[in-house]
Structure formats: C-alpha cells, structure tokens
Amino acid sequence: MIIERRKIFYIISLILILPGLASLFVNGLNLGIDFRGGSIVHVRIATDVAATEVREALAPVGQEKSEVQKSADNTYYIRTSELDQEQTRAIINALKTRFGEVELLSAESVGATIGRELSLNALMALGLGLALMLVYISFRFEWTFGVAAVLALLHNVLVVLGVFSIFQWEVNSPFIASILTVVGFTINDTIVVFDRVRENLRGIKKPDYLNILNKSILQVVNRSINTVLTAVITLTALLLLGGATIKFFVAAMLIGFVAGAYSSICIASPLWYEIKKSD
Length: 279
Prior knowledge:
- By secondary structure, this protein is an alpha+beta fold.
- The protein has 2 domains: 3-32 and 114-278, Multidrug efflux transporter AcrB transmembrane domain (Multidrug efflux transporter AcrB transmembrane fold); 38-110, Alpha-Beta Plaits, CATH 3.30.70.
- It contains 10 helices and 6 strands, in the order H-E-H-E-H-E-E-H-E-H-H-E-H-H-H-H.
- It has helices at 6-26, 33-36, 51-57, 85-99, 112-140, 143-167, 173-201, 209-241, 247-266, 268-278, and strands at residues 30-31, 38-45, 67-70, 75-80, 102-110, 170-171.
- It has a 4-stranded antiparallel sheet.
- Strand 3 (67-70) and strand 4 (75-80) form a beta hairpin.
- Helix 5 packs parallel to helix 7 and helix 6 (143-167) runs antiparallel to helix 9.
- It is elongated.
C-alpha cells in the first residue's frame, strides 16, 4: 500500500529535489531580461513570417537566442540583452536583408532595477499564495492538513525550479505565471485526497490513520490519474506544436503537474500521517 512505502517515496523525492537544489546554489537560474534587464525592439515586417524565422535572421548579428513574440499586423517583439543604438540598427539591417521592408516601431530598455522588483514581487506572490492556502486549508479542515498540503506544494515548486536550473532553461515572467498555475492546479488533487480522508474519519473515535489513508487514496487515485493525464496530453501537444515562444512556459506546467500528481498521493498523505502520528 501507499503509506507503508512512504520512506521509498521520500527517497525518490530527495533524488528529484537535491540535484536541483545543488544546481540552484551553484548555477542559479537563467534569468531572462524581465529579471536581469535588457531591450525590447518592436518591429513591423511587410511579409508574414514565423517567429522562428525572425530569430534565425538575427543569427548574423549574434542575437539568435533572442525571444521573439509575434503580434497582430505582422508586428514582432524582440527581447534581447541590453542594446545600444548601433546594435539596434544592426538588428534592423539584418531583418531587412532577410525579409525586405522592415519598420522600427519602438526600442525600449528594461532596467535591472525593475527586474529586481519583479523578482521580489514574484517571490511575494508565491509566498502569499502558500500562506493563504495554509490558512484556508487549516480553517476548512485542520492545521495538520494545511501543513502537509503546503509542504507538498513546496515539493512541486522545488522540482520545477531544480529542472530549470539544471538545464539552464530561461526564466521569465510567463514562468512565474506557470509556477502559480502549478500551485493552483496541484493543490486540487491534494484537497480531494484530504476531503476523502476527512469523510472516512467521521464517526470513528479511535481511527487507524494508516488504513484510512490507504483506503482514501484508493478511492480517489483513478480520478487523480485521469485528471492529470488530461492536462498532460494537452500540454504535450502545446509543447510539440505551440512554438518556441511558449515552450518553457508549457514545460514548467508539464513538469509541475506531473510532480503534483505524484506528491498529492505519495508525499502529502504520508506527511499528514507523520504529523498525526507525532501529534
């Protein structure tokens, strides 16, 4: 059964999290210009081209790793490291060489100070979200459920951060949105399990927590698997067909959703058992 094998699940989680934590301390995260500062060049191209083609056209001027976002009316936002006027002119010339008529609509710089403020706001949003969830779950159920649920959420966030640090995938504003989406989505599975536990505890004066937890998990495991599979199939399609612009946004959610499905059953419930056993 699940709870009897909890030590195995703890070891699996440590194997997933510790390399990521080590990478976070050694390499940190590959922060995009939203956090470290940079430039945003807004252009209109006469012909309709894909964002990947625009990125390829920037290779001769060393900006092939720029983030390109296509907008309406054949306009494109090109996010790069901080540029001076000469470098901006070189980008426009490279685009003209490849695509012909190109109009520069605007060129702006994002300062490092704004990036630091965004980083702080992102951490505050995540911390506030976890704190409010702890309060709500403690009020709706009891504090032991709240603590176990928040620890499982931290587990999911650390898995995503660790993978992004190990592979040095770019972290930008959409990444923050994906992390908050992971937190909101994965808490749902945990709440479903805990709600079933609460139902099975009613009317029992001396509950056997081990058996009740195993029984509750078996009652909802099919639902949890089906829910996450539906999301994973959709996200996999987006990852394969959605283009480079949303690739890391989708990857973060995909990793987080899978980690959340695992943690809601194999981490949150065993942690609640540990708390109740020592209470």
